[in-house]
Amino acid sequence: MDVPDPYGERALLTPAMTAGHDSVPEHERERLRSFLEAVVAARLAPVHTAVAFNAAYFGYDLGGEGYGASPLRPEDFPVVTLGECAPVLPVGAMVCVTSGSDPLFAEIVYREGAHPEASAHGDVPAWVSGAPAGATGPGEPGEGAAPRRRELLVPDLDAFGPALRLSPTQLHRLRTRQRWINANGHLVVDVCYPSQEAAQRDELSAYAEHLLSTARDQLLSPFVPVSIAELVGGTRDENLRAGLAGIFDTIRDVLDSSELLRTWGQYAMTRTSLAECWRDTGPLGGDDLRSLAATLEHAAVPVKRRYMHTSAHPVYTAVGPKLRAFPGAADLLTGTGYAAAVCRANLALADVIQRDSEQGLFASGSQITLDDAFESGGVWRSHHSGASEPSGDPLRPAGRGWASTLPPEAEAGMDLEPVDLPLADDTSLGSGELLRRDSTDVVWSAPLRLAHLSEGYFPLPSEAVGDLCWSQGRCPTLRLELSHPGQTVNEKEAKQDVAVGIEQEAPRLTGILWPLDFFPGLMIEVHRSLGGATIRMTTRPLRERVLIGDRETGHRYDPRVLTREDVPGSDRHGDSAAGLGPRQLVMRTVRRCGLLTPDGHALMDRVALPTAAYGQLPVGAETVSLESAVVELIEERVLEPALGSRDALGQPHHPACDGQPVIALIGYRPLERRVIRPWSGAEEGGALLGVQFVPGHLRRLRPGCSPSEVQRQAFRDYCRRLGKADGWELPYGYTFVTEHTRGH
Predict the structure, then answer these.
(1) What torsion do the CA atoms of 250, 251, 256, 261 make, to the nearest 10 degrees?
(2) Is the pLDDT of residue 526 over 90?
(3) 163-222 tens-digit pLDDT
(4) I want to staple 69 with a disulfide (CB 3.0 to 4.6 A). Which of 65, 130, 333, 554 is the partner?
(5) Is residue 136 part of a domain?
């Protein structure tokens, strides 16, 4: 099979991929797999999921030009000035590092912690392994909401081809100065995180946040092969975030399922390169990797003294510094070679553990487990077991080093009984937004709540009713004009008389007759001309209809309110769990009690589910039926498993916090799926099989060809949809393929 071109006739990334790998047809996955296998084989560093996304999304050229062969504009890259405190640069970030007269264009391809307490021989104090960002010592997590952490970043300086590559002389000068990069060609920086939450994000979440904020212009560039805005049908942050998560999930699955690749965490390597490494008898080859595994196995074995054995204590070994201690390894650990060596070493250790031990326990009595996957290339814990160790996956980072230094009261707190998850971040749920206010008009928007529907009211900002007069206990009345573009509203709903009440803390419209297809989370825009007797409400249509969970709509909505309130057992006639089956009860509980994210995801402690569902811990058949329902919903991808942690007070967190016990979560992720309408206005269910929607995308032209004026204008319109009001011209050598359907 020929390797696909990101700028070829058919785009590599498709709308189906924004919903995750289970939604992608096999032929689409196979095309993407073929391309990514070639990318991993071509690049010197292991390819992280974020870097694989870049290759497909930004158009990586396999002929040696990298991203330099694409029409990407380097001026869209975030400019980074490194100083005392650096910004967050996740793996995948494409940056221009200001370095005096020689700007450094690079793609960050690897990232790890670079704690100064890690010794040159790989020994790490216990408290460093699994410590949260900002920790200052054993059991001391540090203070302040904006923690710092020293990190080592590996930039690929060849990613953009010869045009933006530094000459050997320039690179030597920068390495000698060691002001922007060190002698090994790496960035060692003190990263300033904006918050504790940001410091706890996993690599892909951090990269998604980077793309949606710092690198937004780059993400929404019209010069990428196919824009994510076209794939998800808009530029709303919640749509883009969900679409990125789906594509990341698809890419990770494609890399994991390849017979030619192996993965360590998020990093992919070719099986061929790993086999060559094991056969190599030189530095960091098979002999050194076997020596590394043996060193870890015997690191904590008690030393026999004259009359007694010394006591055995866990030993924590960092892979990165340990590799530097091997003779002749220094030159192999410069540039991207360091990332390759670290990932190969970790994968070799994992293979030895899986082949020669029982859950990390070797016949010698030594137990080896991965304790921290981020710090110094990975920290492994060696312990000579005189007593039984906690069971679990030895390759899942446990953070026991940091946990062992916590005060006794904190350790006791870890064993608290599970509690119901709070309605996290719900204090501002559904709050309105004032859009315009002047001397004549007030315009605002707010999501419809379940209580609004059941009680027939809608809150008003005080600015909208300041001109109204209340006399003798009578409430003013207004004429409500309600419109719902694209849908029919009957006469009684379109124009109705409503009262303005002040009985509650805030004023509200009362006595509203809501249309039957209005639902919790639907965004309502309200306009009132001050001094007038009319108030207007309208919904705002989306570009096309979407399906979120079981709810289909063609209008703007608030995903958080939709998740919380549009649940089984709740509608305008009542809100009760009575009579719900196990599946509906699980869905209601997760969505109502889970930790809520801005894009409407809900994550709940799996252990706490039965208590939250029944108000007390059930026994017998109720527990079994709930667990069976959870398993079914996860298998059907309605819910998904996730990992979090529990703090010293028993409260769950997501993502998992370093140093806290890992717990299982149940996640509800309401992906917004485009509703493809059948041809000729046919009813749903009558769509033609084999018809595929193809979004608008750039395509590289054959030499001597040029785009038509129609294509040039279509590209200008496409740019405007991405927010470029004046439009841009097609780059030389490319045409624009307008959205269409393929099939019959």
Answers:
(1) 150
(2) yes
(3) 888 888 888 887 877 777 888 989 888 898 888 778 878 899 899 999 999 899 899 988
(4) 65
(5) no
The verdict on 366 and 443 lying in the same domain is: no
Query: pLDDT digit string (tens) for 484-511?
Result: 998 888 999 999 999 998 766 678 999 9
Which H helix or E strand runs over 34? helix 26-42
404: which DSSP letter? T
Whether 276 and 409 map to the same domain: the answer is yes
CB 425 within 8 A of CB 600: no
Q: How far apart are CA 613 and CA 50, in angstroms?
A: 38
Vertex 128 angle, CA 182 and 284, to 5°: 50
What radius of gyration do the chain's Cα atoms show?
Answer: 29
Report whether 674 contacts 544 (CB < 8 A): yes
Q: How far is CA 258 from CA 52, 280, 314, 348, in A?
A: 14, 24, 37, 19
**Helix H or strand E segment including 631:** helix 621-635
Asked whether 343 and 351 are in contact (CB, 8 A), the reply is no
Q: Do the beta carbons of residue 191 and residue 683 sit within 8 Å?
A: no
Alpha helices in 182-298 (DSSP H): 196-199, 203-212, 216-219, 228-232, 237-257, 271-279, 286-298
What percentage of the chain has pLDDT greater than the value 70? 87
CA distance from start to end of the chain: 25
Crossing angle for the helix pair 582-593 and 621-635, to the nearest 10 degrees: 80
The residue type found at 375 is E
Range of the domain at 705: 683-742
Report CA 312 to chain centroid distance, whole Å: 41
Tell me: do 402 and 297 sit in the same domain.
yes
Tell me, what amino acid is at 675? V
> Does 653 score more than 90 pLDDT?
no
Point out the domain boundary residue: 485, 511, 541.
541
Q: Indicate the pTM of the whole model.
A: 0.66
Residue 198 CB neighbours (<10 A): 17
Say yes or no: 321 and 409 in one domain: yes
Q: To the nearest 5 percent, what fractions of the chain are helix, strand and coil?
A: 30, 25, 45
Give yes or no: residues 409 and 473 share one domain: no
Q: Do 616 and 664 belong to one domain?
A: yes
Say if 245 falls within a structural domain.
no
- β pairing state of 534-538 and 523-529: antiparallel
What's residue 304's pLDDT?
58
Hey, what are 56's tokens?
């497909």
Residue 608 lies in a domain: yes
* Residue ranges of E strands in 511-617: 523-529, 534-538, 541-548, 551-555, 570-571, 574-575, 595-596, 602-605
Please identify, among 413, 447, 480, the residue that sits at the C-terminal boundary of a domain: 413
Sheet holding 267-270, edge to edge: 47-48, 267-270, 261-264
Locate 700 and state its tokens.
Answer: 């590289």
Residue for token digits 């608008």? 696
Query: Cα 252 to chain center, whole Å?
Result: 12
Contact 490, 466 (CB under 8 A): no
Tens digits of residue pLDDT in 370-416 = 999 999 999 999 988 654 455 567 888 888 898 888 764 443 333 32
- Say if 116 falls within a structural domain: no
Contacts of 395 (CB under 8 A, 6+ apart): 350, 353, 354, 369, 370
State whether residue 192 is helix, strand or coil: strand
Split at pLDDT 50, 70, 90, the class of 620 is: low
**Do residues 654 and 704 both lie within one domain?**
no
In whole angstroms, give the CA distance from residue 610 to residue 586.
Answer: 9
Distance CA 646, CA 397 (A): 15
**Does 531 lie in the same domain as 565?**
no
Check: CB of residue 514 under 8 Å from CB of residue 453: yes
CA pair distance 669, 413, nearest whole angstrom: 30
CATH code of the domain in which 525 resides: 2.40.330
Q: What is the number of domains present in the chain?
A: 4
